[in-house]
Write a structure and sequence with these properties.
Layout lengths: L6 H9 L4 H13 L3 H5 L6 E2 L4 E4 L8 E4 L2 H14 L17 H14 L8 H14 L4 H8 L4 H4 L1 H11 L32
Antiparallel strand pairs: 1-2, 2-3
Helix pairs in contact: 1-5, 2-4, 2-6, 6-9
Length: 201
């Protein structure tokens, strides 16, 4: 079963990344459910802010696909653009012609994980797992998630149904935090242990 981070953990992680380029890359991985190699090979032309989509060129299995462009990611990319001025590759390495080396982003991820005090055995790829699990927990159709992830088989995507189930069990309803003044019987009196609350059939 894939490891998954909560939305709160992902926020902590991203806030712990000081380098804007690395933060934008990790945001892209989570916002679109991208593989590490797909993030590294993104081109400037792959970002379509008019249609609010990202084109994944030649993903795993040599397949092209589109994923949504997060508004929050777009804001970060607009802040990143004037600093780096990328020409072809969106996140180039030092020479400007080749992608950033994967170990550089992996190192940035694990440094941020320690700063954010996330003790789970997670990696950059966990952001992709979290993307799929969070969409499923929100009720997004399984086949739509399959297309977003670029899975050839629906069976590969179905593993997230089990993860999403565990994720929901670990998440408390916000109603449980609203203890007062909601904890009252219909008559207006606060329920006590001696009072019997009628069962709903």
């Amino acid at each position: 079963m894939p490891q998954v981070m909560s939305a709160e953990e992902i926020d902590r992680l991203l806030n712990a990344v000081p380098n804007l380029k690395h933060r934008a890359m990790l945001m892209a991985a989570y916002a679109g459910g991208l593989r590490l190699s797909e993030v590294l090979n993104l081109k400037v032309s792959d970002i379509d802010s008019r249609e609010m989509v990202i084109r994944i060129d030649q993903g795993k299995g040599k397949k092209d696909r589109y994923v949504m462009l997060s508004e929050r990611l777009l804001e970060t990319l607009r802040a990143y653009w004037p600093i780096s001025r990328p020409r072809n590759l969106l996140f180039p390495g030092e020479d400007g012609t080749k992608p950033l080396h994967p170990t550089a982003l992996q190192k940035a991820f694990h440094t941020a994980r320690r700063v954010a005090k996330i003790d789970k055995p997670v990696s950059v790829h966990t952001l992709r797992h979290s993307f799929a699990t969070h969409l499923m927990a929100d009720g997004v159709d399984l086949r739509r998630i399959q297309r977003l992830l670029g899975h050839s088989s629906l069976a590969t995507t179905e593993i997230y149904t089990h993860v999403a189930g565990d994720y929901l069990k670990q998440t408390k309803s916000p109603l449980d935090r609203a203890r007062s003044p909601l904890d009252k019987t219909p008559g207006g009196k606060r329920a006590t242990r001696k009072q019997k609350v009628p069962r709903q059939r």
